[in-house]
Write a structure and sequence with these properties.
The chain has about 425 residues and is of the alpha+beta class. The protein has three domains: about 200 residues, Gyrase A, domain 2 (2-Layer Sandwich); about 80 residues, Aminomethyltransferase beta-barrel domains (Alpha-Beta Plaits), CATH 3.30.70.1400; about 110 residues, Elongation Factor Tu (Ef-tu), domain 3, CATH 2.40.30. The strands form four sheets. The protein has a seven-stranded mixed beta sheet, with helices on both faces. A hairpin with a 2-residue loop joins strand 11 and strand 12. It is globular, with a radius of gyration of 22 Å.
């Protein structure tokens, strides 16, 4: 029997990426992997973290202002929202197309990033969060959830081990909440926590061409990247770490972490190396549409202390084989007896112009919370992301509610 393999567009882009990377190496263009040898990895880590704090060079406010000026020069059409975040670099439609078909590049430096030091860090975080942490070696990572004693979400995080210290990356809107929660349980443990948001920039790469594109820059080392490790690279004399996260729907996201002083250099490198790929920077407007269409929970809309990992399709970030953690009994009971209360769902809505969140409550019981709404190009309708109580509809696929003298009808996809 002859097996025929059809080369898809993704396969072709991956082949092109590897070929371009090979040509660069052949002609000695600087792009080398530095994470394979443990000693070099630790040395590079120390170099990055030891870089002079940007606060000693200029105030963080001035850094943000310089960042805006730099972006305005490159993207004349760039727009910012009321919170100072980038709404779009060019226009929402083009950026949405990139996320659906190419390589989207996002600035997510607003995420919380903390440095943890001390001999008790691994054991402590292992005890109070949902995933296995205590045996992580330098260069390894795990995504882990922090829950309250009722099993509800405090925050969703990525935990990175550098051997002598650790990074904890979480949601922007839960930064203070997470810090207070961790501090609450530190008694005599040897743990020191510091804020690194002004020291590091974080970027996210996603889209169907992402892996092929990164292969062009990082070479075959990209094949060694998993959800449970991270790799240090140096490209054109710029150091950065590369991390891979995979959502419940199998959408892969790659994070680039680098010193804040490298902010412009990182963007310049990735813009310069776009090659044959549909590459572009993406603002929050296009990403929000993509996020809602793909049921990716964010704080505070969905990630909140109203819901648990089962509800938000984050149960893959819970290790059921480890010992106790805060909220463990509730999560285990729900899993054993199938007592999951809510389902994260997409809904089509026949109207817009209402304020979020919309909560449908009966007898003091939350039946449905519509937490996010976008105008979806994919469905050509208003699309919402909602947490729907499993006992609410009894198998029905639609429901309605009154909002300011209007009847609004919702259909579950």
């Amino acid at each position: 029997m002859i097996n025929i393999r059809i080369i898809t567009n993704i396969d072709l882009m991956r082949i092109i990426g590897r070929w371009i990377h090979y040509i660069k190496l052949k002609f000695s263009i600087q792009s080398h992997f530095i994470g394979a040898i443990k000693d070099n990895f630790i040395l590079r880590t120390k170099t990055l973290v030891g870089t002079e704090n940007i606060k000693n060079i200029m105030s963080y406010k001035n850094f943000i202002e310089n960042k805006k000026n730099y972006l305005n020069n490159i993207f004349p059409e760039i727009s910012f929202n009321s919170q100072g975040k980038i709404s779009s670099y060019t226009n929402c439609n083009d950026e949405y197309f990139i996320l659906q078909n190419g390589v989207g590049f996002r600035d997510i430096s607003y995420k919380s990033i903390m440095k943890l030091e001390g001999k008790d860090v691994l054991d402590f975080i292992h005890r109070i969060s949902t995933n296995s942490i205590k045996n992580l070696q330098a260069g390894e990572k795990n995504n882990t959830l922090f829950l309250n004693d009722k099993g509800k979400i405090i925050d969703r995080t990525s935990f990175l081990s550098f051997g002598e210290y650790y990074f904890l990356i979480g949601s922007e809107n839960h930064k203070e909440k997470l810090n207070r929660w961790i501090q609450r349980f530190i008694i005599n443990e040897d743990i020191k926590i510091s804020d690194l948001n002004s020291d590091f920039s974080i970027f996210e790469i996603l889209g169907p061409q992402s892996e092929s594109y990164l292969t062009m820059i990082c070479g075959n080392e990209i094949d060694k990247l998993t959800e449970n490790n991270f790799i240090a690279f140096n490209y054109d004399a710029v150091d950065f770490y590369l991390i891979k996260n995979v959502e419940a729907n199998q959408i892969a996201k790659y994070w680039i972490i680098s010193d804040s002083n490298n902010y412009e250099s990182i963007i310049n490198i990735f813009l310069k190396e776009k090659s044959v790929f549909d590459f572009g920077l993406v603002g929050i407007d296009a990403y929000e549409i993509f996020r809602v269409e793909n049921q990716i929970a964010k704080a505070p809309n969905e990630l909140s202390d109203e819901f648990n990992p089962h509800d938000l399709k984050l149960i893959h970030e819970v290790d059921f084989s480890k010992g106790c953690y805060i909220g463990q009994e509730i999560i285990a009971r729900q899993d054993t007896y199938n007592k999951i209360q809510y389902t994260l769902s997409n809904i089509l809505i026949d109207a817009n112009g209402f304020e979020l969140p919309i909560e449908l409550i009966e007898n003091n019981q939350l039946l449905c919370k519509i937490s996010s709404v976008v105008n979806s190009p994919k469905h050509e309708k208003i699309l919402g992301l909602a947490l729907i109580r499993n006992s609410f509809l009894n198998g029905e696929k639609s429901f309605s509610f009154n909002y300011k003298d209007r009847k609004i009808v919702c259909s579950i996809l």
